[in-house]
Amino acid sequence: MAKASPKGIKLAVRLVRILKLLFDGHRLTTRQLVAEFSVSKSTILRDLERLSEFGLETEGYAYFLNPNILGAYSSTDAKNIVDNIGGTHLFPDLSLDLLSELARNDPKKTILIKGHHLENINPSGANYSIIRSAIRGRNRISFEYKKKYSSKNYDQVEPYKLVNHKGIWYLAAKHADRPKTFSFGLIQQLLIDDSKSFEHDAKLLEAVNNDDGIWFGAETQRIVIMVDAEAAPYFKRRKLISNQVIEKEFPNGSLQLAVQAVHPNQVIPIVKYWIPHLRIHSPAELQRQLIYEIQDYSEGIVRELP
Fold first, then answer.
1. Are strands 221-227 and 255-261 parallel, antiparallel or unpaired?
2. Are 235 and 244 in contact (CB under 8 A)?
3. Residue 199 belongs to a domain with what CATH number?
């Protein structure tokens, strides 16, 4: 799947900085903003288009917020944009000075952001807008879900949220009375039915809002994982498995983790990645399944050797 550089983060901090100026009552011109951020006029015009839903108005060459809008928003709201894309933990000191530095291509800047490989969904921009509209209106949608070797049509899908998880966009939804997660990039031939709205499932909406990952469902399975001392610091530093809880820390530095998983695939791929440092303690059948898969893989490699 196509990947993008951290331009999204630069865009976010640039938008926050522009919003802060607007919230403070400034009238801005494209010439001012081009000079401020060292970007092209077309980039600034796209930024202003993105901010149009805040009630942006124009007079001559100036862009500004209606005084009534200024009473409804504050500069704190601007910073909340960064908070909502994970900036709360990414930047411990979200000062305007830091935002200004991040928004500029300054060779003297103090911070570099690396490793944020984001899915490029620009080719599906129309679908993005349609789904956001359907979510706001609680309208059902229909689409073709096109995987690499197969496709399937889905009708009467109830969209709840667009979720970005580890740089990839997903649609959290309900279909045929069951929670369902779709990869956004695989959605094609999208149609919206705005003739009637649906009622949210309160429990599902709570799960979508509060769960660490993209697996949503009422029935979960408790999976216990043992982490050796060498890998333990990485799992203590941040949650490498969605919904992981550190239940025990042993004197030798190893850990016992527990995960309430909707599906084993929430856990198994990560355990594979961390072999030999992780093993599934329970349920035992999952560890056996993992062993069989590794044996099949090893035997296949051996057979292919000259």
1. antiparallel
2. yes
3. 2.30.30
Q: Are residues 259 and 199 in the same domain?
A: no
**Which DSSP helix (H) or strand (E) runs through 278?**
strand 278-282
> For residue range 101-160, what is the model confidence (pLDDT) as tens digits?
666 666 777 877 776 667 777 766 788 889 999 999 999 999 999 988 899 999 999 999
pTM confidence score? 0.65
Largest CA distance in the chain: 76
Torsion (CA) 77, 81, 82, 84 in degrees, nearest 10: 110
Q: Can you give the residue range of the structural domain that contains 268? A: 221-304
Half-sphere exposure of 213 (CA within 13 A, CB side): 18
Quote the tokens at residue 107: 């060779």
Roughly how many angstroms between the first and final C-alpha of the chain, as a whole number?
A: 33
Segment 200-233, tens digit of pLDDT: 999 999 989 888 888 887 688 999 999 999 999 9
User: Within 10 Å of residue 72's Cβ, how many Cβ atoms?
Assistant: 11
